[in-house]
Each structure stands twice: as C-alpha cells, then as structure tokens.
Specification:
Elements (H helix, E strand, L loop, with lengths): L3 H14 L34 H6 L7 E8 L3 E8 L4 E8 L6 E3 L26 E11 L2 E14 L2 E13 L11 E4 L11 H7 L7 E6 L7 E7 L9 E4 L2 E4 L3 E4 L7 E4 L1 E5 L6 E3 L4 E5 L6 E3 L1 H10 L3 E4 L2 E4 L9 E6 L2 E5 L5 E6 L2 E6 L1 E3 L8 E4 L1 H4 L2 E6 L4 E6 L2
C-alpha cells in the first residue's frame, strides 16, 4: 500500500508537470510529516499556582490540563487521544466548530470510503470499556458526507480521562480525508443537544476540570513540529502579548465578544479591511458579518465575493481544490489585513496569511483565504489557524463568550 506522503508527492509532480512551476521551473514546497506524539508536556508548577516541590509534598487532584498540538503540512493541527481499555491511540483535531466527537471506525472500508486510507481506526471489539449505543449518525452537506453510529467508551487526553463518553464511529468519510493527518475530531463546540454532552462538558461534569473555560494557542513557528496547546480550565499568560511599562510588565487585555449562535462559537465581526494604500483600502464585510473560529485547519474561509476581492488585491491565482497561489517572492510585500472585532483591529501581515509548503525542489505559496464552497459557509466567515496563530483565544462555556488577544 502506498504511503500518504508518496501520494501527495505524486500529485505535486503532476501539478508541476502541468505548468504550476515558477519561471525557474522549480517549486519550494515544504511538506513535513510530523511524528506521532508519544508523550505530553507537563505544565510547569506556576501554571497551577504552586511549585513542583509543593505538589510532591501535598498531592492534590488535578483540576486543569494542557494538550499538545502538532502541525501537519502547515495546514492542519492535531493532538493525540487514547480510547478504550487497553488504549487505542488516535490523532484528532480539537475542533471548536464541532460539538460532537468522532473517530474513524474499524468498520470503515478503505475500498468503499477512500478517505479511510492511511488512518488509525478505533476497534470497539478490542475495548473492555466499550458500550453499545448504535444510533445512526449522518451528515449530508452535498459533496461532504459523513456516516456512522454512536458508541460509548473511555477517552484519555494528556493527564485527564473521562468515562462513558459518547462519540461517533464513522464508517464513511469524504475522499479528501485521505490527505488528513487527523483520524477524527474532538468537538470543543458548545452544548446544543440535551441528550449529548460534548467532551469538555463531560470533563466538567466528572470534575476533571474545575473552571468552565479553555484556551487555545497555535504556534507560529513553522519550523517546529509543535502546533500549539489546548489549555483546559485555565489561561496561560506566557502566550499573552506583554510590554514593559517602567518597571512593570503589562499584559494586553482580551477583547471579549458574546456568542450569538450556540451551535458554534459565533460572534459579530465589524469589517475586514485590506490596507492597499492610504486612500485605496478595500473593505469587505463592510456592514458587519457573522464569524466563527476553526482550530482544526489553517484556512480563513469567507463568502465567495469577499474572498475574490481579496485575491484580486493580492494577485492570487486559482490553483487546485479551491486553493489559490501567491508569488513567494512577494509574500513580505503583501498588504496588511485588519479584522475588526469589538471595535478593535486584529491585523495580519502577508506571511501570516500565506501557507508555504516545500518538498525537495518543489515549492509553492498558497493563500490561506479560501472561498466558501457550501451553502452553510456562504453567510459567515471562518477564522482558522492563519488568524488564530496570531491571537490567543479563550472560550467560556458558562458565560458563552470568546476572547481574543495578541500573542507573543
């Protein structure tokens, strides 16, 4: 069986052969298959308000946790979970756009569902803690379909575990999942179904996490395999931008926005401004628009007309699978783009909204902006890793607010 990397390399070769090379007939296409994480990073004592020595002298139950995220192809963020007993390791996207959690099932046939290739699969017959549910699950979004059934099992992340978590075993996933590193999704969305507790709510209910908040930091260093962290139950100030004022260290304030749609972490965005010149700015989302955050991918998705305007300004060219290319030599000269939230500008520069990938002599720079290709996406913006890598976010499930702050 061919590997995922070999398949991607073959596709890149075909693209290069068909005229997607630059003037020197070369690409710089940085593709890095990251190692599967085998251990999690332990928080330093000050994250929990006590020193390591004190923890050893007076052991107390842990009431928060931190999950290491890893980066794949500079376009996907994932972490490791363990399901069942004995444990089965899978890679999942910790996704704020999903309330439900799901993994690819051992019953997913790679012949009937190409998207199941190259993935770890959960086999409930090998877990002594598995409990049958069996209710069917189906999501039909046109060309994007998911089919499976509900199950119960124990799930462990970092230092925490929950018992009897409900999740979906997928038996059919879209074909494009063959390119994904993640074997499923750990939903960090808000509770919308009285009969279903999202994973974070189960952590709270089983008293594994004390405070009803989590925060997400995505690493901007593309040379590192570390993609960031999901911090459960706390905010880590080391990820908040700070300045020295006299002898004091002053941290930037979070900008908090109310969540408008409980099906998502949805909020109001004031406008988006492409700063072409002093008197020649291009404004989209001019009268305000809905926006949500997506911690699973690097993309920034918006209505087709708005994204087309942005791509016209930055001279992006249509490429492949709704993606657009940029001239790598011009990335540092691209205009800054302001996303106004709560009356405050959150600014991205050219390198921030460019995805640079390389493989040997093949290189390509992709725009992180993607036009919406489903009806559900057309009426809102989706701010993914290209945006979130610049801004640390905190999610309060009790107050139903989302906060943004510039990261270090």
């Amino acid at each position: 069986m061919i590997s995922r990397n070999l398949l991607i390399t073959f596709i890149l070769f075909l693209l290069a052969k068909n005229g997607f090379a630059n003037e020197k007939n070369t690409f710089n296409f940085e593709i890095r298959r990251q190692k599967t994480p085998t251990e999690q990073y332990i928080n330093h004592g000050h994250h929990f308000g006590r020193k390591f020595q004190e923890m050893m002298e007076k052991p107390e139950p842990r009431n928060n946790d931190s999950i290491a995220l890893y980066r794949f192809l500079d376009d996907e963020f994932y972490g490791e979970i363990v399901i069942g007993h004995p444990g089965q390791k899978l890679n999942v996207a910790f996704d704020t756009t999903w309330s439900y959690s799901w993994v690819i099932s051992s019953k997913c046939s790679s012949i009937k569902s190409i998207g199941c290739y190259f993935h770890n699969k959960y086999d409930h017959s090998k877990s002594s803690e598995y409990k049958k549910d069996g209710r069917p699950f189906a999501m039909d979004l046109g060309s994007y379909n998911l089919t499976g059934f509900y199950s119960y099992d124990n799930i462990s992340i970092a230092h925490s575990n929950v018992t009897g978590q409900s999740f979906v075993e997928m038996v059919y996933v879209p074909n494009q999942f063959v390119f994904n590193k993640a074997d499923g999704v750990m939903g960090l969305g808000l509770k919308t179904d009285e009969n279903y507790d999202p994973f974070f709510y189960t952590l709270l209910k089983q008293k594994k996490i004390k405070n009803p908040i989590f925060s997400i930091y995505l690493n901007r260093d593309r040379q590192s395999n570390r993609g960031g962290n999901v911090m459960l139950g706390f905010v880590d100030l080391k990820h908040v931008h700070k300045a020295k004022v006299g002898k004091k260290i002053v941290y930037d304030n979070f900008t908090y926005l109310p969540v408008e749609n409980y099906a998502y972490w949805q909020f109001q965005m004031d406008q988006v401004v492409v700063k072409v010149g002093k008197d020649n700015n291009v404004v989209v989302c001019e009268k305000g628009c809905k926006a949500i955050v997506d911690t699973s991918s690097n993309a920034i998705i918006g209505p087709q007309a708005d994204i087309d305007q942005i791509h016209d300004v930055i001279n992006a060219r249509e490429f492949f699978l709704h993606r657009y290319t940029l001239d790598c030599d011009t990335v540092n000269k691209l205009p800054k783009i302001d996303f106004m939230l709560g009356g405050k500008n959150f600014t991205l520069s050219g390198p921030d909204y460019t995805v640079k990938m390389s493989y040997h002599s093949i290189t390509i720079c992709l725009s992180a902006f993607i036009p919406a290709n489903t009806i559900q996406e057309q009426d809102r913006w989706i701010l993914g890793g290209a945006f979130l890598a610049e801004f640390y976010t905190v999610y309060d499930v009790q107050a139903r607010t989302i906060g943004f702050v510039k990261t270090n």
